[in-house]
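STRUCTURE:
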């Protein structure tokens, strides 16, 4: 991302102190595979209006309050499964559990 932005004439520092100006928002969970950093993150953002848009370099951006909650609950080494927007092969990895609250409230 630093190299890409440099090609566009924008300089991004290699370190930004935590706080409201940090593009990773309130927290960042660094994702590793096989003991190596994947360079992907699950993180907050200082631009919440961009959530859901293709704005990052493959990271998963969340609202700061949500990533703070996740950060407090996910232990180091927790398994992360990312299911793409098309949901292909999701059933191999993920199964919904519990009540469908929306159906219960709005359709039932």
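SEQUENCE:
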């Amino acid at each position: 991302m630093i190299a890409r932005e440099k090609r566009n004439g924008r300089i991004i520092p290699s370190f930004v102190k935590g706080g409201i100006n940090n593009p990773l928002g309130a927290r960042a969970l660094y994702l590793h595979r096989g003991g190596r950093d994947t360079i992907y993150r699950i993180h907050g953002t200082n631009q919440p209006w961009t959530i859901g848009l293709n704005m990052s370099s493959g990271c998963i951006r969340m609202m700061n309050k949500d990533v703070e909650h996740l950060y407090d609950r996910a232990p180091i080494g927790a398994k992360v499964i990312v299911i793409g927007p098309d949901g292909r092969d999701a059933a191999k990895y993920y199964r919904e559990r519990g009540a469908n609250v929306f159906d219960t409230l709005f359709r039932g």
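REMARK: The chain has a mean pLDDT of 81.
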